[in-house]
Amino acid sequence: MTATESAPAALSLDSDPGLDCRHCGTPLAQSVADLGMHPPCQSIVSPERRWAPEAVFPLHAFVCSPCRLVQIDAVVPPEDIFTEYAYFSSFSTSWLEHAKRYAESMISRFGLDGSSTVVELASNDGYLLRNFVEAGIPCLGVEPAANVAEAAVASGVPTRVAFFGEDEARAMRSEGIGADLIAGNNVLAHTPHLNSFVAGIKALLNPGGVATLEFPHLVRLMEGNQFDTIYHEHFSYFSFTTAERVFAAHGLTLFDVDELPTHGGSLRIYARHADDDSTPLAPSVARLRAQEAEWGVDEDATYAAFADRVTRTKHALLSFLLKAAGEGKTVAGYGAAGKGNTLLNACGIKPDLVQFVVDRNPYKQDTYLPGSRIPVFAPEAIFERKPDYVLILPWNLQTEIAEQMSAVREWGGQFVVPIPEVEVF
């Protein structure tokens, strides 16, 4: 080594990633879960591209010390994920029922009628807004994926193809569009431009209007070891405490919150303009804020303990699959959704351990999963091939799936769920 040469930098597993919080701008230094390199989890691998290379990106979650927003870097441009999307909400029976109950509740609670306007952000295939259309309430969906928006329009739901943010909200305002109810189910986590998104809600919401947003609850994610819900299209992960901080920064007050069983444990927050005194704070707000404080939402140790449990669960699933393979047993997966792809790729699972996966969505059938390249078939393949185990990848729907596939037990087959711990039933 010459005098002008410098020694290479030492590698560190805990090195500062050089990323800044997407809400408050603070440099991120504390790791929450490092899941390695992954392709976008909702991408589709067509048969002709089975052996073609694919781009992979780091999947690493960090927590911001001041605001406690858990987040990944926006390494995959949202246009690459959402312009053509493979997830259609209408293929989940339980989710359709959830949407119907939501619409009935909002219409009753807030007195919505033919003079109201409902706007849903990331409206998917219109599964939720159909309920408002049937009730005679004007509505509009905002959906970035053109292929999914086409399905919504075909079902009678007016849909605008766009990525929502402050600029889009102001454009809608200039066209005379305002919202008495803004709905956003599982979209808050999907935006890399968090401040623009929340500012857009503020701009689009009519005086006296209400915005509701549903997202997986960070507390339940960590308590339930739900690391497979960390993936590239989920840029942020929220506690109620953090959501309050983000919305308050944009002049919006969270006046109520519901704890929901969906997606392993979710929150539905209710927001209004901060200067709207007509709606008092519900007791649920102070109660959940206090519960999160007791849980340790602002303590570094809470986040530091999560990685160890993730590692143990990965090892347990691999041990089960290796034992099954050693005994000559066959394993099929159910559900080609994002969380399943995260789990499979984080564990390095390939077709030698899970021979195939089935999914009800025709868009995904006769393709291959990204990364693992496990083939995807229609659900009927389970009954044709009769595997010994069916690994339920969308574990949050295990009851629904086990009922739909109950005939598996006729040949002695069993179901397996990987989260929060590996369980065979």
Brief summary:
The chain is an alpha/beta fold and 425 residues long.
Give structural notes:
The protein is of the alpha/beta class and 425 residues long. The protein has three domains: 19-72, no CATH class; 89-276, Vaccinia Virus protein VP39 (Rossmann fold, 3-Layer(aba) Sandwich); 306-424, 3-Layer(aba) Sandwich (Rossmann fold), CATH 3.40.50. The protein is 32% helix and 22% strand. It has 14 helices and 20 strands. It has helices spanning 78-82, 93-110, 129-134, 146-154, 166-174, 194-204, 218-223, 240-248, 283-295, 300-304, 306-326, 338-347, 380-385, 398-404, and strands at residues 19-20, 27-28, 30-38, 57-63, 70-72, 118-121, 139-142, 159-160, 179-185, 205-216, 236-237, 252-260, 266-273, 331-334, 356-358, 367-368, 375-377, 389-392, 414-417, 423-424. The strands form four sheets. Strands 8-7-6-9-10-13-12 form a seven-stranded mixed β-sheet. A seven-stranded mixed β-sheet has the order 16-17-15-14-18-19-20. It has a four-stranded antiparallel β-sheet with strand order 3-4-5-11. β14, α12 and β15 form a beta-alpha-beta unit. The longest helix is centred in the C-terminal third of the chain and has 21 residues, at 306-326. The protein is globular and about 65 Å long. Mean pLDDT is 91; it is low at 1-16.
